[in-house]
Amino acid sequence: MIDEIPLSRPDITDDELRLVEMVLRSDRLAGGPMMEEFEELVASRAGRRHGVAVSSGTAGLHLAMLALGIGPGDEVVTTPFSFIASSNCILFVGAKPVFVDIDPVTLNMDPERIEAAITPRTKAILAVEVFGNPTHMDRCRAIAAKHELPLIEDACEGLGGAWKGRSIGSFGRVAVFGFYPNKQITTGEGGMIVTDDDTIADVCRSMRNQGRAIPGQGQPQSSTLGMAFRHDRLGYNYRLPEINCALGVAQMRRLGDILEKREIVANEYVQLLLDTSDILLPTVDQHTRMSWFVFVVRLADQYTAEERDRIIQGMHRHDIGAAAYFPCIHLQPFYRERFGYAPGDFPVAESVSHRTLALPFFNRLTLREIDLVSQTLKLMISRENLKRT
Question: Which residue segment(s) compose the domain that 283 sits in?
Fold first, then answer.
């Protein structure tokens, strides 16, 4: 008998426990040395000069929008196939997301469609590395440069990946990572803004901390009296505590091992499912170093969303985690009500969304568990096929 296999599980070791205990025994629970080290580690991995730790990837995207001056009446070109936070952050600042259909292979925005979505009101392109795949991110960067628009890189699912040797997080004028428990590394909750732009970094540091002044800006170096209560702009409480940063530091120190284990799990799934014609496996371009966030398969074209959902329910009955990744953003009730979107508006994203299925995926998934998941998935598909005969 095997225990329940969840969809995801964080990888916490004695290293994380030791650093968290160190913080708890210190007198610095916020804004201390762990945050600084965590920022340096993530920024360095992305090849950027600045890292700004924040309370979530969502918070990071929100601050990136604000730092770029995006606001009411503006448009941001982005994908409808993503976790909803990438578009919600555009709404947070009063702007409008303008969706572009996706490439059916990479599941990222189709670069051939981006320019048609750009209007005089477009103020940025927000590109998402869906499931940790950075393929064609250089083309997004080139299109943004051609139209003199900033590229915001939603790298929340992609820490550690690369495209043509260039690290995820290095393509946009600003990029954001996320560290939710199902991500490559976790801080419980947390995010990181990375950039080479000094002004963006300083503005984000200020806004994450209630808009407080950055020491040395706008006042004599000798005058620090009252700096803690000087607020230069509207800000937020988006700070990331030292305890969370300690988790992040420990995880970043062993990121190579974490990524290697996730790649092994992904490769094992591929080998076990390769002979199943009813399943489309993730396609990784030869120039892509995939950062495996989740392992998402797609049922063949003849399957409906209802059949996919029954397969997921069957997996659950066998105590195996599975989920539909992702429902299209433009068909979420709030977006349909506000913007009038309807089925058929972005047919590729919708077709993919109806047939995607995320399987259990985490570092310590055993070969026996991977085999059980794969065999159960095949069984559930076979049962659906029998209903057709």
Answer: 256-388
